[in-house]
Amino acid sequence: MSYSPELEPTPQFAATDQVQVIARHSEGHCRTPGYIRGKVGIVERYCGNFKNPEQLAVAHPAPEIIPLYRCRFLQKEVWPDYKGTETDTLEIEIYEHWLDPV
Amino acid sequence: MDQDLKMGPHDVGGEFSDPIDTSDGGMTHWEKFSNGVRIAVSARKVITLDELRLSAESFGDEYFKMPYFERNGLALVHRCLERKLFTEEELKLARAQAEKEFEVPLIDLPNPESITHLHDGEEHHHHDNDFQEDEAGEGPPSYYFDMLAVAKLLVDRDLITMQNVLQKIEQFDNVFPTRGIAVVAKAWTDSEFREYLIRDAKNAIIDMGLKLESFAEIICMPQSDQTHHMVVCTLCSCYPRSLLGMPPSWYKSRSYRSRVVHEPRKVLAEFGTNIPDDVEVRVHDSNADMRYLILPQRPKGTEDWTEANLANIISRDHLVGVRIPENVI
């Protein structure tokens, strides 16, 4: 999927879709915390399209517009030794270029 | 977690850290001014918030050695220099001038009439209570003079006005902290509004007549008998500022940012909040473009209370999800 600075992209995912956060490295500024990379969860909702913060951080003249999702993870999936209850969850916002379908 | 994937010193979610100091230190005059300059610069779109974040992240090992407002203030200074909004030499001169104009004795508070500095390009005499000492009683920290210099240089270049800065300080002190509380009190007494707030928080709040300066979207999460919500920003300090004011010290602390995502129940217990095992704890990492307002359940025993009375028992901590308003019985 490629994104442009002008076009509002069509979201590739919808609520309840299973997704995996891509476990790649990043240079510079990025809003995908290390702890969530590689984890599998579901899309909770599509939040709209936003300018790519990785490009905003370097004052890019024409940042791409990218769909943003709120994704839900079971804490047991994120932290294998999680001490709370089985049903505890974590929700976090992930830009589409950091998500793979499962 | 795979340590290789950690982005830098700021990416602390999942780390083990100290118990949380749940008291809020508040802010000194210097911190308010520094914060006001930074917010004015990003509100006027001179520099984006993401540029300021990257600039702070680039401090490396120094990141957590500096107090929050110093780190963010100096991040602004560095980014202005990188963007060539002014030169090192201009900064040095403006800083020297700011220091000269601000001769605060180390121990005694200044005579306000003897101090002038620039407000909106005009000399301004200070009045009683304009100044306060910081906690150590030692007057302003060094970076405050950098911030005075940056403000002067940016005002001279018509990128911000001193009025922009002063307005932000005023809003953070007196306007923003009352809004979220008013929204929740209304939701507790008006079920139609409550539904609107949960469905479309931003528009529900705007329809109340509140002007939200922030670019961010707002999502309202209602507490229930099944789910307990709480909010953290593991990467910096994202927070619904235009609804709650400045985040408290603990929200910005390394301990809170590190621990909430992996041991939320333990963190809640440190705030005196114990969630039964049959209630799901749902942590929201406010890491990007959404901001979260937690809607607590209306306490039992307040059924005939007015909106104004209800507002008196709602606190910021309830709206971040670290505490629950107590039943009145």
Keywords for this structure?
heterodimer, A: 102 residues, mainly beta, 5 strands, 35% strand, B: 329 residues, mainly alpha, two-stranded antiparallel sheet, two-stranded parallel ribbon, 14 helices, 6 strands, 43% helix, 10% strand
Q: Overview of this structure, please?
A:
The complex is a heterodimer of chains A (102) and B (329). By secondary structure, chain A is mainly beta. Chain A has two helices and five strands. Chain A has a five-stranded antiparallel beta sheet with strand order 4-3-2-1-5. The longest helix of chain A has 4 residues, at 53-56. Chain A is globular and about 45 Å long. The model of chain A has no long low-confidence stretch (mean pLDDT 97). Chain B has 329 residues and is mainly alpha-helical. Helix content of chain B is 43%, strand content 10%. In chain B, the strands form three sheets. Chain B has a two-stranded antiparallel sheet. Chain B has a two-stranded parallel sheet with strand order 3-6. At the A-B interface, strand 2, helix 1 and strand 4 of A face helix 2, helix 12 and strand 5 of B.
How many E strands of chain B? 6
| Helical run tally of chain A | 2
Q: What is the number of beta strands of chain A? A: 5
Q: Could you say which overall geometry of chain A the principal axes of the C-alpha atoms support?
A: globular
Strand percent estimate of chain B:
5-15%
Task: Give me the side-by-side strand order of the main sheet of chain B.
Answer: 1-2
From the N-terminal CA to the C-terminal CA of chain A, the straight-line distance is 16 Å
Topology (SSEs and partners):
The complex is a heterodimer of chains A (102) and B (329).
Chain A: E1 18-21, E2 40-51, H1 53-56, E3 65-74, H2 75-78, E4 89-95, E5 99-101
Antiparallel strand pairs in A: 1-2, 1-5, 2-3, 3-4
Chain B: H1 29-43, H2 49-57, H3 68-82, H4 88-101, E1 116-119, E2 122-125, H5 142-156, H6 162-189, H7 191-199, H8 201-207, E3 217-222, E4 227-232, H9 241-244, H10 249-252, H11 254-259, H12 264-270, E5 280-285, E6 290-295, H13 307-311, H14 316-320
Parallel strand pairs in B: 3-6, 4-5
Antiparallel strand pairs in B: 1-2
